[in-house]
Structure formats: structure tokens, C-alpha cells
Write a structure and sequence with these properties.
By secondary structure, this protein is an alpha/beta fold. The chain folds into 2 domains: 154 residues, 3-Layer(bba) Sandwich (Glucose Oxidase, domain 1); 36 residues, no CATH class. The strands form 3 sheets. Strands 1, 2, 4, 6, 8, 11 and 12 form a 7-stranded mixed sheet that branches. A 3-stranded parallel sheet has the order 3-5-7. The longest helix has 19 residues. Helix 3 links the parallel strand 1 and strand 2. It contains 6 helices and 12 strands. Helix content is 30%, strand content 24%. The chain is elongated and about 70 Å long.
Length: 233
């Protein structure tokens, strides 16, 4: 099945569960492919989101090197890439290149969230800043490096290239799952295995959680539950 056929099912899981499932499928994934630094999520009520990455880089500490028609051409080229650069739904993944001043200016706010939602996007992942939280496009998700008030000199530096967000390396077209905890890249050749891995995790955890939440929980019951976990496959 196409990868998109699994998306609705995978949004029922949080991102930590997806990370755990990927560790079962490929133990080598335990130390890579996910965000490693805290990011802000102003819309945790939206839950998990998943889509194909559209990558770009931004700067805000100095004016755009392009002006006039050249700057407009660059911006329209990015929007065309976001809208038509691969399968949907899409997630904007923007790396801020401003180094020590990362997040000084916002590319993202009321206007960009509505534009990107209208072009088939479900959210943005950025280590830069976002703003206009009360006026954000309804249902458009976000995890970001910070919430700040100004756009400063923000402009696109490029798009379509490999980016790094909070330690997570993302290529254009990668599948990303994200929520209030952060984000993780899902290898497309592993996505079909994730639902079963999540089910296995749930069954193993239930053995302990059901006992731990019940009256009379003891170390002896915990020890027996851990032994029972090993029998679940």
C-alpha cells in the first residue's frame, strides 16, 4: 500500500510510541532520526500529525540578498515546491540558519500558516520562531524553537535541501511524525510494520500498567508481570 494509507492510523499514536516502534523494527534507530532538543508546541490539543517533508532554510538577522522581482521569484518558487514538490499531505520543515541568533525573527504566523494549510500542508516543524498564535490557521500544527513577536529581516535562504532541526536530519520527501514531544523521521520502507509494532508495545505495557494502577500493587506482582512480558510476541 502507498505510505499515505497508513497516515490516519499512525496519527492515533503519539510520537514517543512511534519512536519505540521504530526501535523494535530497527534497533539501530534508537539513537538517530528524531529531535533531540525541546521544541514549543502551542497546539497540543491537535494531537499527532504526519506528512511528507518540504524543506527550506531561513535567515532573519540581515535583509534578503534578493530584492524586487528576484525576491518574489524565490518566494513563489518555494510555494510551488511546497504545493507540487511531492506527495501530500506535506509538512514544512524549516531550519533557521542564524546561529546564536536563531529564532530572532518569525517566518511563521497567521499569514504563512493559512497559506501552507491552503496548499495542502498539515503543519510546520522549525527550530526558528513562530508568532500570531491566536490567529494561527485552524488545525494547522506547529512545533518550533520559540515564540517571539517580530519577523525581523526574515527571508528564505533556500529550499529543497537537507536540513537539521533540533538534531533531526530531514531530506525533502521524508515522512515525519510529530506531536508535542517532538518529531521523528519514518523510513518509508518501515511504515507498514509500525502498526503491528505499536500493538505489540501496547500489549506488553498493559501487563504492567494494569497491575500498577490497581490496588495492592507489590514488587512481587511487578516481578511476575515483567516475566509475563517476555511471553508476549
Amino acid at each position: 500500500m502507498p505510505a499515505q494509507d497508513y497516515f490516519e492510523q499512525l496519527t492515533k499514536f503519539d510520537t514517543p510510541t512511534i519512536c519505540n516502534a521504530l526501535e523494535i523494527i530497527d534497533p539501530a534507530s534508537r539513537y538517530s532520526g528524531f529531535t533531540r532538543k525541546p521544541l514549543v508546541n502551542p497546539f497540543p490539543q491537535n494531537g499527532s500529525f504526519i506528512g511528507f517533508a518540504r524543506t527550506a532554510t531561513i535567515r532573519a538577522t540581515h535583509p534578503n540578498e534578493f530584492t524586487g522581482d528576484k525576491a518574489k521569484e524565490q518566494r513563489l518558487g518555494y510555494y510551488e515546491y511546497f504545493a507540487n514538490g511531492g506527495p501530500t499531505p506535506s509538512i514544512a520543515v524549516l531550519q533557521d540558519l542564524d546561529g546564536a541568533d536563531i529564532g530572532v525573527g518569525c517566518f511563521w504566523g497567521e499569514v504563512q500558516s493559512n497559506i501552507h494549510k491552503g496548499l495542502g500542508g498539515v503543519g510546520v516543524i522549525t527550530d526558528g520562531g513562530i508568532r500570531d498564535i491566536p490567529d494561527w490557521a485552524d488545525g494547522f500544527n506547529a512545533i518550533a524553537g520559540s515564540i517571539v513577536p517580530s519577523h525581523a529581516h526574515v527571508h528564505l535562504a533556500g529550499y529543497g535541501q537537507t536540513v537539521r532541526i533540533a538534531g533531526m536530519v530531514v531530506k525533502s520527501g521524508d515522512i515525519i511524525h510529530a506531536d508535542q514531544h517532538g518529531a521523528v523521521v519514518i523510513p518509508e520502507d518501515q511504515i507498514a510494520k509500525i502498526p503491528a509494532a505499536c500493538d505489540l508495545l501496547a500489549r506488553k505495557e498493559a501487563v504492567i500498567l494494569d497491575l500498577a494502577k490497581a490496588p495492592g500493587f507489590t514488587f512481587e506482582k511487578l516481578k511476575a508481570a515483567i516475566a509475563k512480558q517476555d511471553e508476549i510476541h
